[in-house]
């Protein structure tokens, strides 16, 4: 085991999968020699070279469109959108192409790719570097939408995403990049997609969160415990597919639910 923060776990997950499968390629703005704006791809250009870690022009539509073509021709591309706030120029490529190839081809073609992007606020980034847009993609049939909150889950879920046949939106809560730390196996492992994590067991009320809000729920549960209120905390991890069973079982036990997220209140997931 090694102690990693969430950013290091993402980096380790990418490195492991690139070593394991030479079809995995990365593309995005400044991800090569610079190692990405947050350092998520640091060192990968040096190890794998320009053919597998590709700096692109500043064109989100071009990045995602190129990645879709790569996926259809047998590669396992990992496009990075530098901030989730900048994903909208690629929205049509994502919802009209990336999400629909399996259905529109009657199962003849899949589009196995993992679109990574830092999500959420908490770094004083202002309104163009702090958005949480997971609900947009949760409304798109054909997409898997994931948001880990721990280093262990970040590495393991990334491996599962890259080994699947479905297109994945992999959202990384940027406020946790360096603040969330934990033990992470140095060897390869996977975390199942579509399974929530019970972060804390309780009997009085269920707190449901994802991404950076999981730790907020845990902090609230600790404060509530001082007043004799026993909170159960559910970390969704997987937004789509949603683990309804775990959530409903918890709410069936406690009889109360509080949903905590940092996206706009109206229309949130």
Tell me about this structure.
The chain is 32% helix and 21% strand. Helix 1 packs parallel to helix 7. The protein has nine helices and 13 strands. The chain is globular. It has helices at 6-20, 44-48, 60-72, 91-98, 101-104, 134-138, 151-163, 213-225, 244-254; strands at residues 2-5, 24-28, 53-55, 76-80, 114-119, 144-146, 168-173, 181-184, 197-200, 205-209, 231-235, 238-240, 257-260. With 269 residues, the chain is of the alpha/beta class. Strand 2, helix 2 and strand 3 (53-55) form a beta-alpha-beta unit. The strands form four sheets. Strands 5-7-6-12 form a four-stranded mixed β-sheet.
Any key phrases for this structure?
13 strands; alpha/beta; four-stranded mixed β-sheet; 9 helices; 269 residues; globular
């Amino acid at each position: 085991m090694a102690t990693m923060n969430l950013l290091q776990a993402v980096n380790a997950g990418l490195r492991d999968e690139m070593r394991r499968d030479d079809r995995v390629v990365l593309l995005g703005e400044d991800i090569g020699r610079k190692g990405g704006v947050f350092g998520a791809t640091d060192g990968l250009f040096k190890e794998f070279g320009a053919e597998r870690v590709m700096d692109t022009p500043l064109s989100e539509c071009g990045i995602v469109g190129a990645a879709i073509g790569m996926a259809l021709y047998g590669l396992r591309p990992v496009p990075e959108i530098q901030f989730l706030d900048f994903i909208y120029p690629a929205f049509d490529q994502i919802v009209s192409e990336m999400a629909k190839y399996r259905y529109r081809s009657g199962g003849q073609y899949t589009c196995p790719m993992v679109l990574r992007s830092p999500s959420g606020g908490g770094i004083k980034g202002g309104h163009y570097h702090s958005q949480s847009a997971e609900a947009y993609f949760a409304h798109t049939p054909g997409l898997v939408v994931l948001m880990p909150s721990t280093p262990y889950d970040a590495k393991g879920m990334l491996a599962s995403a890259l080994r699947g046949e479905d297109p994945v939106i992999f959202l990384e809560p940027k406020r946790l990049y360096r603040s969330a730390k934990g033990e992470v196996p140095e060897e390869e492992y996977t975390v199942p997609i579509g399974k929530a994590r019970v972060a804390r067991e309780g009997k009085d009320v269920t707190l449901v969160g994802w991404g950076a809000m999981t730790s907020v729920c845990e902090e609230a549960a600790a404060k509530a415990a001082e007043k004799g209120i026993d909170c159960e905390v559910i970390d969704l991890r997987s937004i789509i597919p949603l683990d309804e069973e775990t959530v409903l079982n918890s709410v069936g036990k406690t009889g109360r639910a509080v949903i905590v997220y940092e996206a706009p209140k109206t229309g949130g997931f």
